[in-house]
Design goal:
Elements: H1 7-15, E1 21-22, H2 33-38, H3 43-46, H4 60-67, E2 78-81, H5 83-95, E3 101-106, H6 112-118, E4 122-129, E5 135-136, H7 138-144, E6 149-155, H8 167-180, E7 183-187, E8 210-215, E9 228-231, H9 234-247, H10 253-264, H11 266-289, E10 295-297, E11 305-310, H12 316-327, E12 329-330, E13 332-333, E14 342-346, H13 351-370
Parallel strand pairs: 1-12, 3-4, 3-6, 6-7, 7-8
Antiparallel strand pairs: 2-9, 4-5, 8-9, 10-11, 11-14, 13-14
Helix pairs in contact: 4-10, 5-9, 11-13, 12-13
The protein binds pyridoxal-5'-phosphate.
Pyridoxal-5'-phosphate binds at residues 26, 83-85, 109, 155, 159, 187, 189, 215, 217, 223, 228.
Length: 371
Amino acid sequence: MSIEPFRMERMQSTWENLVEYDMSESGVRPLTLRELIEMGFDLEGFLDVPLGYSQSNGTLELRETLTGVYPGATVDHMEVTNGTSEANYLVALALVEPGDRVAMETPNYMQYPGVVRSLGAEVAPFRLVEEEGWEPDWEQFERAVQPGTRLVYLSNPNNPTGSVLSPAAMRRIVERVEQAGAWLLADEVYQGAEIHRERTPGFWGMSDRVIITSGLSKAYGIPGVRIGWIVGPKELIEKCWTQHDYLTIGPSKLSDRLARVAVANRERCYARTRAILQRNLQAARQWVDGFGGFLRWREPEAAAIGLVKYKAPIPSIELAERVRVRQSTLIVPGAHLGLEGYLRLWIGGREEFLREGLRRIGEELQAVRQS
Ligand SMILES: Cc1ncc(COP(=O)(O)O)c(C=O)c1O
């Protein structure tokens, strides 16, 4: 099976630990083990636990804790995975076959186009429209989601726009998915990372054609523990588990234990995320405003990212490369996310870090503006 490079992830893996300012992230500044101990993780008690295999689809304790997040779901509606990315991958492995059509929004995180094409499926994109609050171009959406479409992928809140779908848009999407006899995969890893608005409503429960993926990496601020999950109809979960048996068997025992503490304390994690983002959004707003009309953005409603449009004819990959080389600062070019002419900036770090990172990016933007 050949698979195209995942351009953004590879760019991050190559440079994120070498630059002075990594501004390419998308979750909040991560929690420490000490903070999880303060929330109740029993480190001392874990020291003598044999490091054997864990329950491969997630321990009953963790899945039971997760049922509290998804009303109506039981432990058999869940599969615990190594991150949301593995969760997304397992769903594709379980559902997608050569010749299938998979519809997906653009811009997006861009894991899915590569994965489904490698499985022999065709990608049918539908655009999100900035002027419409980043809601789908409905004409394109309806062209992409038709009888015969196997799966529809979206992330809500969305990476990279930080936007949240309205309840009316969610209903319209689900209705079309049902009419088409497709599946909806809603990646909700940013749910809980809202900045000023109320919690993003989930797709869970809207239809028996809905599958949710999520995890600890973004709204919880714990990417290093590498825990994600799938929530869906039992038969689908069964198929994902079969794929999981072949792929990685399951997540680590330590990660499963840590995840139990995190999920049980999710409101505390979300509150921490909100406090970081509310503060940082102000600094980012000031910075964007300082460029007059040269930079434009629709402020993120959720997620630790700001997507800015710049007014210059330089391709985003070239601009991001210039910022990396001259300022030792990493940002994500819009082209890696399916949207040329934009840059994605991280707003989840410490405030001093954010200010210095933005200052460095700003120097290059000013230079490009004047050239
Ligand atoms: C929408 C989306 N899904 C999944 C992931 C990967 O998450 P994880 O670290 O849980 O594998 C990301 C990471 O940026 C993301 O933005």
